[in-house]
Amino acid sequence: MSYGDVMSARVRSEERRAEIVRAALEVIAERGYRGASLAAVAERVGLTQQGLLHHFPTKDALLVAVLQERDRWDAVPDSPWRTDLLASLVEYNAMRPAIIQTFAALLGESVTEGHPARAYFTERYARVRASMAAVLRTEYGDRLPNGLTPERTAPLLVAVMDGLQYQWLLDPESVDMPGAFRDFLRLLGEPAE
């Protein structure tokens, strides 16, 4: 087998893996992680379950790939965030309900004991809270106008973002997720100049 053949096979394998991850996202969004089966994902991409296991040896391995892919889509630049950019992120999320639905389904299930995504979400939330505290500190300094520190406000900021997503998923006609988030930012007060 030539080098070109090896590289071509590797590219096809990566393309197939990406197709499987996209299908898994859809199935998880529809059924939740516990309700999703490898057979359903395999069927969606035209593979047998055995063919899917060639790319992902376990359902947990596929879940990890789904979570990593979602994180790649939401990767943020290394430059500091600002609260107005967070508002833009909320607007962007409103344009991709399937991704938000998958995240919400996995997050909800992950609070159960022994769920394979529990450690992932626990670590992710610690990272996100620290990131949000840094955003708030950059804009407001050591104290927000309401007197709270960035560290005390960060969990509230994250809770509002995720809570709005759940409400919006349940009733998108009644919940203006971007508007409600901008309203919350106004409650924080004006940043320090």
Automatic annotation (TrEMBL):
It comes from Streptomyces bangladeshensis. Residues 37-56 bind DNA. Keywords: DNA-binding, Repressor, Transcription, Transcription regulation. It comes from the Bacteria. Residues 14-74 form the HTH tetR-type domain. The lineage of its organism: Bacteria, Bacillati, Actinomycetota, Actinomycetes, Kitasatosporales. InterPro entries: BetI_C, Homeodomain-like_sf, HTH-type_TetR-like_transc_reg, HTH_TetR, Tet_transcr_reg_TetR-rel_C_sf. Transmembrane segments: none annotated. PROSITE patterns: HTH_TETR_2. The keyword Repressor applies. The keyword Transcription applies. This is TetR/AcrR family transcriptional regulator.
